[in-house]
Design goal:
The structure is a homohexamer of 192-residue chains. With 192 residues, chain A is mainly alpha-helical. Chain A is built from 9 helices and no strands. The interface between A and B is large, with 41 and 41 residues.
Amino acid sequence: MEHPVSRYAVPRFEELPTDIRDRILAVQEKSGFVPNVFLALSHRPEEFRAFFAYHDALMDKQSALSKTEREMIVVATSSANQCHYCVVAHGAILRVRAKQALVADQVAINYRKADISPRQKAMLDFAMKVALQSYAIDENDFAVLRGHGFSDEDVWDIGAIAAFFALSNRMANLTSMRPNDEFYLMGRIPVK
Amino acid sequence: MEHPVSRYAVPRFEELPTDIRDRILAVQEKSGFVPNVFLALSHRPEEFRAFFAYHDALMDKQSALSKTEREMIVVATSSANQCHYCVVAHGAILRVRAKQALVADQVAINYRKADISPRQKAMLDFAMKVALQSYAIDENDFAVLRGHGFSDEDVWDIGAIAAFFALSNRMANLTSMRPNDEFYLMGRIPVK
Amino acid sequence: MEHPVSRYAVPRFEELPTDIRDRILAVQEKSGFVPNVFLALSHRPEEFRAFFAYHDALMDKQSALSKTEREMIVVATSSANQCHYCVVAHGAILRVRAKQALVADQVAINYRKADISPRQKAMLDFAMKVALQSYAIDENDFAVLRGHGFSDEDVWDIGAIAAFFALSNRMANLTSMRPNDEFYLMGRIPVK
Amino acid sequence: MEHPVSRYAVPRFEELPTDIRDRILAVQEKSGFVPNVFLALSHRPEEFRAFFAYHDALMDKQSALSKTEREMIVVATSSANQCHYCVVAHGAILRVRAKQALVADQVAINYRKADISPRQKAMLDFAMKVALQSYAIDENDFAVLRGHGFSDEDVWDIGAIAAFFALSNRMANLTSMRPNDEFYLMGRIPVK
Amino acid sequence: MEHPVSRYAVPRFEELPTDIRDRILAVQEKSGFVPNVFLALSHRPEEFRAFFAYHDALMDKQSALSKTEREMIVVATSSANQCHYCVVAHGAILRVRAKQALVADQVAINYRKADISPRQKAMLDFAMKVALQSYAIDENDFAVLRGHGFSDEDVWDIGAIAAFFALSNRMANLTSMRPNDEFYLMGRIPVK
Amino acid sequence: MEHPVSRYAVPRFEELPTDIRDRILAVQEKSGFVPNVFLALSHRPEEFRAFFAYHDALMDKQSALSKTEREMIVVATSSANQCHYCVVAHGAILRVRAKQALVADQVAINYRKADISPRQKAMLDFAMKVALQSYAIDENDFAVLRGHGFSDEDVWDIGAIAAFFALSNRMANLTSMRPNDEFYLMGRIPVK
């Protein structure tokens, strides 16, 4: 392949532990391809398992935050960290989840101008504070979010997603993780 | 208790799942007290499990980085993020690991002035870049570290620890996690 | 229309001076739609004329910089300024010019990771310096660019494009200029 | 000449197109000397024409902003960009326009301490936001300025002047444009 | 000595002027050791005298600010400047003055999370503004502090201490001043 | 008086201690007027004495740095701190000392473009590092300055002046100290 998936070696599929192979096969079946994050992180199976367990605990569970909103948090904060992989891959997921072709690029460039609700803007203001100056979080931030109808559990969700992608963005930048070409077009063309 | 452990409710011990109780009992037996991060994160058992699995995969495994060096990375980057819990708790662990009473405060305040080796300074320079501007990591950074004898696997370790604590610092700041009073004095008085 | 083109009123086409109408008709014929920058800036005909005269002097002329390279400069610096209009509109033009579907998103997110040549990375390093800290430009910057084969006239082109879009980005942010929906998909699907 | 006007060659007067010669002769007649910006930019006649057309559209027209206030915007934002030419040249014009010897230096150093009205301070607060973080402009900014009696057209004027000098400052820094010695003393000595 | 006190030579005690020797003997008698700042600055007797005269005028006088509060200002702002000497030495003094073992580390890491009163947080907010962006101090800052019961003379005290340690931190960083080992443990163990 | 000298009361001359009155009379005799820093700081006689003792120890002594060079350091760093009083007052002194009308404004706006020697630029690079990020000073900085012929004592002088004006700038911003009108024109008109 012309462009490597990662700065680090990606093990051959046959070499991987069974549970990681199963996870990779499952995502391939669901998405039609294997997102490179699964390949790049398979370089370290223990970290792979913890990473996806954390990811799933935040992104797949039931929550008052819609899956669309969770992806908005990922895209906005990953853009602030200039994470190539995360903006492209999660931008795609955001388009698919939102059934809206434009919102991912808008949130990536300047979420303040995106076609989102005031509640969602407040959510992203807080996510960006977690991403960029979490030391200054205080009760006023919680009060603002409560004023938009978020519960304290929702605030944990917002903050934890921003925190998890603080990790994820740095791993992608460390490994020079490359997004699959498939992501760029996903969700851009309305399905009739 | 006068000062709460977290902004969020901490479940009663009896309410916790068995595996989390076991983990808490184990750390209590080893340390003589339960570090508050175990209590604060037990608010969300799934995230608790993933968090400590990730932590252990990086901090407890065999590595060319000594445990002391790994704690230096935690303290330096957590200080840059102004994370009260992580600097105090991991400062204590660093003192204990290093069997050196001064190094933790030095690394927390300005690692450039700490009593550490040039190799360790290069390690912390890179960890700080991961913490603060990971988008700019490039081949030159790897070359510098190789020049100090680090392998590419070591660089992953350095970067992954800085990345994991980027998450951890943000969770501690989000929950206003309070370090146990016990940490402040640990490792400060030489044991004969 | 649900989403306004600009914070400011857009004159009706009939009210516009002839030369501005002609320019708008020409771009419509060429592109198949009228990019909103023409509508938003028509609020001030004198400034409209100067803006597009400046634009054309830099972007349409013969130059050792290819049109693709010029659009890379626009996209990279506009992203640094978080300019919604410019990243979306010029991202589209970049995809079309480069006949390459991925490069615009890559340059917008983190040009250091984009599929571009070392010469183009040096070009964008300098463009970003013009955008973000032009006071520090010195002879070393010129020497680096000469080392990549750029003439001093090329350096003027790079710098002037970054400078012109410093203006353009601020006008778009001031007026809350909205990119046309058409831009988002342009150049993403290879034409057989 | 000991100190060059620009990093780039300045054409001989005879080589310049007629319209540019006329413009230069006009400014010389009015000012008694040719400000170096006319010489430095004559290196590129097309850009020269667009630059001064834009300049005149903002700085010479009728506006609710006085010419003094417009020069304040130039001086404050050019100082933030550390633009040697623009602070010196427009500082001189500001002193002459304001018939006030001190205000230009005050605005250049720290406009918050200058002998200007609260309305003018609000104007400069907004101009600085356009100069430094235009992505964050929102309705609150407009509300503040309306509270000081500015119309939305006035806000465009403030923002457009700050945007135009974002361009101008970068061109001056790119070309290392040198202000004429004459500017330094202009307007400093009260004329009886 | 393994770790030098300063980048610069420290005169032998016998070589020092009498007044400086007396000052050093006095501090040694009171503290049981000679803090290295006295040795490092004795390299320049005139500056030594002015430095400690200034220090004493602010830190030893009667004031509505308690000595504990004054040390909080020193620790918080010195941490922002990453001053190894000042955080360690004044952290020790703060612990002793406050008769509280934890507060110094808390204020050094993130004063917003420290066990201090809202009035003390407001005091440190202002001290940090003096340390980091004094150009933006305005009447609103004074109003906030008055709202917490501070007089304008108290505000001078807060600001002057932050200003003096802006000097002190820079001198310590310039000379690579090393804190005495004794400081690290002072005030950490409650005295019965 | 229309514009107050300081946010704080200035004692009547008769109320001041004798030594402070003498100092004020001496400067008045020398300069022809009393610079406002003497009035503003006389609000606190103890601090006044220490301030000027420190000032004189650095600015009036024999040194390998010329008095002109010392004033360059003051002007450059005070501009970075946006200190109205210090830039205006020391800009005047710099013009007088340098017998050069232009250099003070140049150094205040962007010292990289000023008509100064490479050695003086290196001196100001270091002074700015002391002013803005003293925690990062290291042996490389000393090596660069030695390469320009500065001794380590000269480096102390450069750093100590930048450090002292870090204090001075903050006091001027705290008190909203106003420069005397006389300063603005001093040294601008060549004396035959």
